Amino acid sequence: MKEPIISGIFPTPIYMTNMDRPFTKQELQFVKNQKNYCQKNAGNINSKDNYILNNKEFKNIKKFLDQCCKDYLKKIICPKNKIDIYITQSWLNYTEKNQFHHQHSHPNSVVSGVFYFNCDKKMKKFYFQNQIVINK
Protein backbone atom coordinates (compact mmCIF):
# COMPACT_ATOMS: atom_id res chain seq x y z
CA MET A 1 0.00 0.00 0.00
CA LYS A 2 1.25 3.44 -0.91
CA GLU A 3 1.76 5.94 1.94
CA PRO A 4 -1.37 8.17 2.27
CA ILE A 5 -1.22 11.93 1.87
CA ILE A 6 -2.51 13.90 4.83
CA SER A 7 -3.37 17.53 4.18
CA GLY A 8 -4.68 20.27 6.46
CA ILE A 9 -7.36 21.22 3.94
CA PHE A 10 -9.33 23.55 6.22
CA PRO A 11 -6.93 24.85 8.88
CA THR A 12 -8.43 27.22 11.45
CA PRO A 13 -5.91 29.62 12.95
CA ILE A 14 -7.07 31.17 16.23
CA TYR A 15 -5.64 34.60 17.13
CA MET A 16 -6.03 35.58 20.79
CA THR A 17 -4.83 38.70 22.54
CA ASN A 18 -5.74 41.10 25.34
CA MET A 19 -6.21 44.82 25.26
CA ASP A 20 -3.50 46.29 27.49
CA ARG A 21 -5.75 48.74 29.27
CA PRO A 22 -8.95 48.69 31.30
CA PHE A 23 -12.20 49.83 29.72
CA THR A 24 -13.11 53.46 30.30
CA LYS A 25 -16.23 54.42 32.25
CA GLN A 26 -17.69 55.81 29.00
CA GLU A 27 -17.12 52.53 27.14
CA LEU A 28 -18.70 50.46 29.91
CA GLN A 29 -21.63 52.86 30.27
CA PHE A 30 -22.22 52.71 26.50
CA VAL A 31 -22.31 48.88 26.62
CA LYS A 32 -24.75 49.05 29.54
CA ASN A 33 -27.00 51.61 27.78
CA GLN A 34 -27.09 49.64 24.51
CA LYS A 35 -28.82 46.79 26.34
CA ASN A 36 -31.97 48.96 26.16
CA TYR A 37 -31.84 48.80 22.34
CA CYS A 38 -31.70 45.07 21.70
CA GLN A 39 -33.58 42.39 19.88
CA LYS A 40 -34.20 38.79 20.82
CA ASN A 41 -31.73 36.32 19.41
CA ALA A 42 -31.79 32.51 19.57
CA GLY A 43 -30.74 32.00 23.21
CA ASN A 44 -29.79 35.59 24.16
CA ILE A 45 -30.20 39.19 22.93
CA ASN A 46 -28.10 41.37 20.64
CA SER A 47 -27.91 45.05 19.76
CA LYS A 48 -30.01 46.33 16.87
CA ASP A 49 -26.99 48.38 15.82
CA ASN A 50 -24.86 46.17 13.54
CA TYR A 51 -22.13 48.81 13.27
CA ILE A 52 -21.53 49.33 16.99
CA LEU A 53 -17.79 50.04 16.57
CA ASN A 54 -18.65 53.15 14.54
CA ASN A 55 -19.95 54.88 17.67
CA LYS A 56 -17.65 57.54 19.13
CA GLU A 57 -17.62 55.76 22.50
CA PHE A 58 -15.80 52.83 20.85
CA LYS A 59 -13.32 54.88 18.83
CA ASN A 60 -10.27 53.54 20.71
CA ILE A 61 -11.58 49.98 20.85
CA LYS A 62 -12.08 50.06 17.09
CA LYS A 63 -8.47 51.28 16.65
CA PHE A 64 -7.26 48.35 18.76
CA LEU A 65 -9.35 45.82 16.82
CA ASP A 66 -8.24 47.29 13.48
CA GLN A 67 -4.65 46.82 14.58
CA CYS A 68 -5.40 43.20 15.54
CA CYS A 69 -6.85 42.64 12.06
CA LYS A 70 -3.72 44.09 10.42
CA ASP A 71 -1.53 41.89 12.62
CA TYR A 72 -3.62 38.82 11.72
CA LEU A 73 -3.33 39.65 8.04
CA LYS A 74 0.44 40.01 8.30
CA LYS A 75 1.12 36.95 10.50
CA ILE A 76 -1.54 34.47 9.39
CA ILE A 77 -2.76 35.27 5.88
CA CYS A 78 0.63 36.56 4.66
CA PRO A 79 -0.57 37.99 1.34
CA LYS A 80 1.89 38.41 -1.54
CA ASN A 81 0.18 41.58 -2.74
CA LYS A 82 -0.66 44.67 -0.72
CA ILE A 83 -4.19 44.16 0.56
CA ASP A 84 -6.08 45.40 3.57
CA ILE A 85 -8.49 43.77 5.97
CA TYR A 86 -11.24 45.68 7.74
CA ILE A 87 -14.22 45.21 10.01
CA THR A 88 -17.52 45.37 8.15
CA GLN A 89 -20.06 44.75 10.92
CA SER A 90 -20.04 44.74 14.72
CA TRP A 91 -22.69 44.29 17.37
CA LEU A 92 -23.10 43.51 21.04
CA ASN A 93 -24.39 40.21 22.43
CA TYR A 94 -25.76 39.96 25.94
CA THR A 95 -25.93 36.48 27.41
CA GLU A 96 -27.23 36.16 30.96
CA LYS A 97 -27.27 33.19 33.31
CA ASN A 98 -29.19 30.25 31.78
CA GLN A 99 -28.91 31.78 28.32
CA PHE A 100 -26.63 30.74 25.48
CA HIS A 101 -25.18 31.92 22.21
CA HIS A 102 -26.55 29.83 19.38
CA GLN A 103 -24.51 27.93 16.81
CA HIS A 104 -24.13 30.03 13.69
CA SER A 105 -21.74 30.90 10.87
CA HIS A 106 -20.41 33.99 9.10
CA PRO A 107 -20.31 32.74 5.49
CA ASN A 108 -19.17 36.01 3.89
CA SER A 109 -16.32 36.65 6.33
CA VAL A 110 -12.65 35.93 5.81
CA VAL A 111 -12.09 36.50 9.54
CA SER A 112 -14.55 36.62 12.43
CA GLY A 113 -13.82 37.83 15.92
CA VAL A 114 -15.12 38.06 19.46
CA PHE A 115 -14.27 40.81 21.94
CA TYR A 116 -15.35 40.37 25.57
CA PHE A 117 -16.38 43.26 27.80
CA ASN A 118 -17.42 41.14 30.71
CA CYS A 119 -17.61 37.40 31.09
CA ASP A 120 -17.50 34.60 33.60
CA LYS A 121 -14.05 33.08 33.07
CA LYS A 122 -15.45 29.62 33.83
CA MET A 123 -18.08 30.01 31.10
CA LYS A 124 -15.93 31.70 28.43
CA LYS A 125 -15.81 28.78 26.01
CA PHE A 126 -15.95 28.46 22.27
CA TYR A 127 -17.03 25.42 20.36
CA PHE A 128 -16.05 25.33 16.72
CA GLN A 129 -17.69 23.07 14.20
CA ASN A 130 -16.58 22.49 10.63
CA GLN A 131 -19.11 20.70 8.46
CA ILE A 132 -17.26 19.06 5.62
CA VAL A 133 -19.11 16.93 3.11
CA ILE A 134 -17.01 14.73 0.84
CA ASN A 135 -18.75 12.89 -1.98
CA LYS A 136 -17.00 9.78 -3.24
Counting structural domains, the number is 1
Secondary structure class reads mainly alpha
Element string (H = helix, E = strand): HEEHE
> How large a portion of the residues is in β-strands, by DSSP E?
5-15%
| Major beta sheet summary | 3 strands, antiparallel
Could you characterize what this model shows?
By secondary structure, this protein is mostly helical. The chain has one domain (19-136). 21% of the residues lie in helices and 6% in strands. The chain has two helices and three strands, in the order H-E-E-H-E. The chain has a three-stranded antiparallel sheet with strand order 1-2-3, with no helix packed on it. Strand 1 and strand 2 form a beta hairpin. The protein starts with 24 loop residues before the first helix and ends in a 42-residue tail after the last strand.
Keywords:
136 residues, mainly alpha, three-stranded antiparallel sheet
Summarize the structure.
The chain is mainly alpha-helical. The protein has one domain.
Helices and strands, with pairings:
Elements: H1 25-34, E1 38-40, E2 45-47, H2 59-77, E3 93-94
Antiparallel strand pairs: 1-2, 2-3
